[in-house]
Amino acid sequence: MANNSNLGAAKAAKNDEFYTQYADIQKEVNAYLEYNPDTFRGKTVLLPCDDPEWSNFTRFFAQNFERLGLKRLISTSYAVESKKYKNYQPTFFETESEWYDVDKTRIKGKIFELTHDTNNSGRIDIDDLEWHYLEGDGDFRSKEVCQLRDEADIIVTNPPFSLFREFVAWIIDGLTDFLIIGNMNAVTYKEVFPLIKDNKLWYGPSITSGDREFMIPEAYPIEAAGWRIDDNGNKYIRVKGVRWFTNLDHGRRHEPLKLMTMKDNLRFSKHKDLIETGYQKYDNYDAIEVPYTDSIPIDYDGMMGVPISFLDKYCPEQFEIIGMAKRGAGDPKLKSKVYTKEDYDNYSDLNATPTLWGDDGKLYNTYPRILIRKKQ
Q1: pLDDT one-digit tens code per residue, 304-345
Q2: In 184-232, which ranges are E strands?
Q3: Interior angle at CA 182, CA 178 and CA 185, nearest 5
Q4: Lesser CB count within 10 Å: N end or C end of the chain?
Q5: From CA 52, how far away is CA 344, in angstroms rounded?
Q6: Phi then psi for 49, rounded to 5 degrees?
């Protein structure tokens, strides 16, 4: 098995067709229904960047159309010739349709819609899907898919990893509710973090750690550290650092963290390094370093730098997000000190993230941090 493949490698290689597992979709959607059973009721759901004949997104929402109370389901695909890997065999579902065109099938995107019981079975489900070719190749930025975006109430998909920033901006332009998958490090993007800070985007509830398995097209080279091929010959890879990103409300984001005081953390914390070093103050930010989310002191009123994984537990009623301590996504005005060439030869690196003094009398960078303050 080869090493060193993840979402970053997929982004670099433009290998964007990662098919989300049905169980992962089901678990995430159910979490919103537990908080609000009417989350999807009467709504038009758009699944762009999809591959409806293979996608578990289309399968899940079509099979649960009535349970969710949907008004309309739309799923669009990207044309074969516009993809990096062009190996493609049309399915029986497509070739037996009156719409099938041997030339269009490779250069045109497709749109699948579900609105009513087309086969008089007495229920609306996946067998009632209707489809036709799009005018273009199905790119989410095209005029016709933008129009579908503007007609939708909720967008749900696994967008191309290489275009995540652009896809988020595309959603925000449409002022649409959304539920999408991406890498947790996307929160450090300058296009994404301001949305998190302003409570316009947050993590979904069902994934907080570990990795997730995705199916990939048969033609994809296997370059992941963890992969398998099932009994039917389908390829799967495991990807670390995956999160759902959404603006749909759910119960977990309103559950406050149960935390100890600073004094108790320094006595009873399970993190020995924290007990040994204490809460260090940054040299270039007016904030203390809190390297673990469970070590946030409940009685500290000043600014704190916490890991990105804090967002898995973030409760907006408990803490205020002040900014990002990272070059690019961060607000330079939050810095208490900016290093120059006259100060240090590695001044540029030191300016990238918060810094701490080491026991050897040298400055060292921490990881990028989210700056928070306890709400009074």
Answers
A1: 999 999 999 999 999 999 999 999 888 889 999 999 999 999
A2: 202-203, 211-216, 227-229
A3: 125
A4: C
A5: 55
A6: 55, 30
